[in-house]
Each structure stands twice: as structure tokens, then as C-alpha cells.
Amino acid sequence: MYGILIDVTKCTACEKCVYACTEYNGLDVLKADRDRAVITDGLSANRLSTILKVDEKRFARKSCMHCLEPSCVSACLVGGLTKSPDGPVIYDRDKCIGCRYCMLACPFHIPRYEWDKTVPFMVKCNMCVGRLADGEQPACVEACPEGALVFGNRDRLLSEAHGIIKKYPTRYHNHIWGENEFGGTSVLYISDVDLAALGWPRFEPESIPSLTEPLIHKTPFIGLGVAFSLVGLNWIVKRRNTLAEEHGEPFKEEPHPEENNDD
Amino acid sequence: MIRRTRAIKDVLWFFALAGLVAAILRLWFGLGATTNLSDSVPWGLWKILNMVGGVALSTSGFTVGFLVYVLRLKKFRPFMKPAILIAFLGYGCSCLALLFDIGLPHRFWHPIFMWNINSFLFEVFWCVLLYFTVTAVELAPVIFERLRAEKVVRMLHRIGFVVVVIGISLSSLHHSSLGSLFLVTPQRLHPLWYTPWLPILFIISAMGGGLMVVVFIKLLWARWYDPASINGSETERKTPLIQIINGKAATVFNRRSQGPEFPQIRSLATIAASIFSVYLVLKIVDLFLHGGWGPLLAGTWESWLYTLELVLGVVLPIALVIIPGSRHSATGIGLAAFFGAFGLALNRLDVGVFGYFRDAGVVYFPSLIEWAVGLGVVASAGLVLFFISEHLPIFSEQPPATRPAAGLFNLSFGSLRQLWNTALTDGLHRITLISIFVIPLAFVIMYPPFYNSSANNQEIRPAIGIDAGRTILRIDGNHGGVETIFAHAEHQKRLGDSTSCGKCHHVSLPNDRSTPCSRCHRYMNDPTNIFNHESHMSAVAETEHITGLHPANYSCLECHPEQNPKTSSNAKDCLSCHKEDMFLAGVQKDSPNLRLANSYREAMHQTCIECHKKEAVAQSKPHLGDCQTCHKSLQTISDSELVNVDVANTI
Q1: CATH of A2-207 given 3.30.70.20, 2.40.50.100, 3.30.70.100, 3.10.20.310
Q2: Of the N and C termini of chain A, which has fewer Cβ atoms inside 10 Å?
């Protein structure tokens, strides 16, 4: 499974990755330029990746994290999002109905919507699946002049990252963002400052599908259980009523003393 | 009561027609132009109030079905038909609103064929679809009875119990799943509302709230068409009672509602209130278990909203049902039912909209079109409810006779006065009159280009001259409302006077966006530049005490001379300000804060030189890789010389 390792200490915010991304995805460079100025986190339907300021002197590329257990994939009701075995989370616009549940479900606020179009679709980074199929690196990784983005097998990247942290213990936080958060992501970050600005939580939460999927797989049984208990309950009530009638006791239509003659 | 319902119907027609216009505008102009939804707030009024709230308010079919068919409580049988009709219409209008909400309405059928069994939304879709069918089947006997198709009616009655059981099972699934929809956002939803118990809380509150809706609508209906069934007959109300107060006999009037149907309504409200009490207890236990106390006592607007939701929507209805005074009056029960339904809707809004404000960082208020469609759909459902209940035996054995004698076909043009009278009494004419006024008005008010506020389609304001000759303009550079001063005349002069317009204004389209400043002044806004122009602007404005709306925009003259072009070459020296702080003593070279990426120079060198060298070979232009090519000050090469070199090399 592929992944991208991002070294925050190396990023100079030159935005070459963003331009490469915009160009490769055939988006309007001028609109991408404008959205950097207008939108707080820089991501829009015209800009699939952006450079965020982590603090005064640190920058990092932000784009789809390609989670190992993606919330959006689990949420999409038509199965329009899939986690491919190669790593990327891929969007199928032929299935999408535009419900935007993926946008609500993503813990990183990645999916964007083409609000200004009459026939809109969701937009997000797909790790350049087309380029991966041709045996090339994603456009952003290839464009980075600093080597701040490294593409490769996720396991290899993890061991590399651990190696870097071990080698320079004073320079890096001893933490790889994306190793365990939300069940792990294909995009990994190492940094010397906290990455809360990129939307990383301060603890390591479990993956979101693990909150919902065990529950939803129970639903057919809950439904059947409810149906059977209703039938059972109805049978008991019926039986009780018949018995009451046979014994001539006023079981069935209880007079409600409280209703009519109270006070 | 024809006159009163007529006025209400007029209002409903007004909203329905305005909603129709809004819906057409929404489909024509797209979501971004007509709604206030954004990437930060992807779900708004239509999804939360119309869908999640609307479905919750239409639980009646399932709860009353449970009481009547499973528990066989015969006294609630008269509520069955109203409850099913309300459920049918409620689900219908939720689905209709959803059609306008989804981005690609023509694909609404996709989930039928494309499955994702891991998605709660998928489950909700299927359950709502099936349950909508179930309510239609449950409602069908009424229509077939009217059509006198007795065989069908008998067949439908035979499968009645099975249908109800299927309906209840489906309901118990999707009402809880509507809560589970929000389980995917543990990071984003406010902790007051986010709890693993969302599915349980949703289904229990929906059960109570759904009953409250039946009670409310039943009471309204009785008020308009059959007050005696609730309040008792006039004579009964006017008959004085003799009571002994303080040992003396006093005459009092019985103010209690004594109609034959009131006891059933009251016991339905009591059941709803008991469900609400369970809900209240669960809510409080949930606060204890899932850490809601902290945020509740934090005093934020969310904690006040949460309190309001619980007090108005849960505690008040319970109290109104418990207190004897209100318990025995139709008004008291009606208020309890209203607040119960209101609290349910508010809870859904809190979970789906208000709970996300903190995370989104923006406040969402639905646009005019969103309100119009949302209310219009509900208003149309109200009209259908009126129509069906007036023509079919839903709320009573006999549909009330409401038709006035004067009708469309009796219209005669004898006199203007008669025409006017007919127009006001005949339903169709009133509707025509309303639509003549409402449709154009709604169209004009809601036409998106008139008020569009979406950032993406923002209108570009014309530049305003600040002097008489318009040599200097105030321009909105980022289309975000932050203005700056632009010396238009000077730019024009420098770039070649009257022939220079095309250099910035490429095509003379209306609202031509022209060329952004950064196209020429790249260094100023380029994040790659080591000189952070933006922060210098604000810092200088602060140290020099420049005031105004955007002080940083007026700080140019602090570093750049007044007349010449404001470029880096004729700006102040860095050292003129930074003499001291650039050479601070005692800074350790190895301190972790000093270790950044490669220096800017190295970074740029890598970015440029690598490609330059490659291109030098590829295009056989060896000078491309030379230092002088970029660093012109090392050896001054005039532009004409460079061109000559190029030509020579190519040849």
C-alpha cells in the first residue's frame, strides 16, 4: 500500500506541489490562486491541496489523508467512494447523488463541493491514481524541490520516519501523525511542532467506521427482533383478552376512572 | 369555521407557491447560488429540519399503530387514520425537500441499485423508502372505501396487522439510524449533543414527539370543524355548577373540556409525556456518563441552547400534562403538544446544525430560497392534509361539509360586485388571485443574481476613484471586501500610456476581472519570498500608529518612496529598521528553533538550477545554467543583448 511521508521541517511553502496538483487535475490556476486568498484553509473545488501554516515558520501540505479505514467510504450511501488496495481513496462521480454526507463524515474536512455549478460533484485528491497506474509518483511529490514529500510503500515510509526521528531526536517530535490516528492514514507527517493546525487531534482516536459499522451490521437483527417481539406481544394481549372475555371479567376495555370521573 | 380555515389555506397557498418558485430557481441556478450552504456547512435547513426533523415529527403512524394493533387498545382506533395520514404526508414532504437538497436530484434512485451496507444513510434511505410505501398501503383502505372497491379493502384489512408490524420494525430502525448518522462526527459535533446514545435518544424523542403532533393536529382540526367533540356542547359549558367554597355555595362554570373525544386525546398526550419523561431521564444520565456536564456549565451559547431545548421542549410539555389545570383543558394539552413538537424539531436542529457551528467556525443561516422551499414543502403537505381530511373520513366518520354553494360553474358576470364575491368565496379563484401576486413577487425577491452572496460568484465592485481625476482608485483586490489603494494613472503611464490598457485588462468583458496585482508584483504576494510583505505591512502600520479601516494598506509610504514605482529595488534597507534585532547576541546556532528547512537561497537554487541545467542541455542554450542568467547584477546584460544571444544560439 502506497503512502506519502511529509516532513514539515523541510517545507518552504513554495506551493510547487499545489501548482503541480492544479495543473495535473486540469483545474483553473487563476481560480486556485483566488481561493488561496479567499478561503481560510485554502481547500476548494479549485484547489485539491494547499499549504497550511502550522506556526510562524512551519508549513505543511494539506490534502486528502487517504485513511486506512476511511469514514467517507463507510458513509457514502451509494458506495461512490472506495479505498483502493494501492492506498488512494477514490471517488466515482458516476455513482454520486450529491448528498454530501462524505463532507460531514470526514474528520479532516477534505471533501469539497462544486457549489457554483448547476450539476455539482464532490472533489478531492485521489493521490493521482492515473499517474500511479503509469508507475509514476503523484504530481505533488514529483514537484517538491525540497524532498519534503516522499512517496513509497507505507510500511517502508513508516520505518524510514522512525529512523529519521531516532537519528535526530532533538529535531522531531517523537510522533508520526497518521500512524494510528483514526485507524491510520496513508499520508504521514513528521514535524518538530504540534500539527493541530492541520486538523490532527491531540490524542489518537479510533477509526470512525469502528464506531458505526458494528452498530449498522446489527440493524437487520434488531429489525427482526422488534418484529418478532411485536407479534409475541400481540399474541399475549390477544390471549389475555380472550381469557378475560371467557371469565367475564372486564379486562379488555378497562374503564378509566381517572379519565372521566376524577376530582 | 370555513372562514378561518380559508384564511389559513390562503397562507398555505402563499408559502406553497413561493416554495414552487424557489424550487425552480434552485434547480435552475444550482445549490451554491441559491443556498447558504458551504464546504464548512454541507448540511443545512432542508436536510436537518425537513428531513431529519420532518421524519421524526411523523412518527405518529408507528406509535399509534403500536397502541391500536399490537396492544389492541380500541379507544385509540379513531387516531389511527389521522396518524397514518400525518406520517404519509410527513414522509412525503421530507423526501420532496430532500430532492431539492441533493446535488444531483435526477440520481435519487441510485441507492436502490448501488449499495453500501456499511452506511447508515443507506439504511435510512431504504427504511424511509419502504416505510413510505407502508404508510401508503395503510392509507389505501380509506381511498378504496371511497371508490367502493370492497374486495381490495377486505384484502388490505386482512394484511393490516402484518403491514403495521413491518412498519413498526422499519420505523424503529430508521428513527434510531437518523441519530446514528451523526455518530460519524465525534470530532466535529459539540460534546453536549455528541453521545454514543444518539440513536436511542433519537428514537425515544421521536416516539413522544410524534404522538404530540397527532394530538396537536387533532386538536386543531377539532377546533376548526367540530369544537363540541373536544369542549363539550355549548349547553353543558353554560350550565353553572354549584360548588362549596369555604362552607358557602358558589356558582362556577365548568371551564374544563368535556367533549366525548377529549379523554382519548388526553391519554394520548399522557403517553407522550411519559415517553418524554423517559427521554428526560436518559438525557440527564447521558450527561453524567458521557461528560456533558462540563460543556453544560461552561456558559456558552450552546449550553443555554441545550437548556432551552430541554426546558421548553421536554420539561414544559411534561409539566403541562401533569398540572391538573392544563391537563383538563384543550388549550393546555394543545400547548403541551405544540411545545413537545417544537422541542423535537429544535433538538434535531441542534444536533444537525447548531452543534456544528463551533467546529465549522462559521454561522449558517438559511437563505431566502432555502426557507421558501423548506416551508413551501410543508405548506403543500398542509394543503393536501386539508384536502384529504375534508373529503375522506379521516378525522371523523363523516367528512365535514365545507363546500360553499357558490362554485366555479355558477359564476356569472352579471355585476362586478358578484364577480368579486365569487372570486373571494370560490377556492379556485382565490388561488388564482394569490398566485397572480405571489409568483412574480417571489420570483423577483428570490432571483439569485439580485442578492447573491456566495463567495465564488461574488460581484466585482467597480473601482472608486479617491481623487477627482480618478488617477488613484480604491480597489477590492481579493474580492473579499479588503480594499487597497491603486495608483491607476501612474501604472498606466509607466506601462505605456494609452496603449497599455490591454496589458492588464485583457478582454473588455463586463466586470472584467483584469489582472491581479500579483501577476506583476509577484514578490509582494509570493509566499516563496523570504521577505514577508504582508506581516511587515501590518507591523509597520502598528508601530507607526496608522489608523483606519485597513491600516496595513496605507503603510506603503513608510518603506517605499512616494513617487517612484513601489518595488523592492527602491524600498528602505532592511537594516534601517532591523539593525539591532538581526545581530542579537547569544543566539545559539544549534537551537532547534533555528533549524528550519534549507535556507531560502538554497531552496530556490535547487528549484531553479536543476531545471535550468536540464533545459540548458535540452535546448542547447548553455547560458541558461549560468549564474549571470538570473543574477544580472553580477554582469549587466541588457535585454537586447540577451535576445541576441538567444537568437545566435538557436541558429
Answers
A1: 3.30.70.20
A2: C
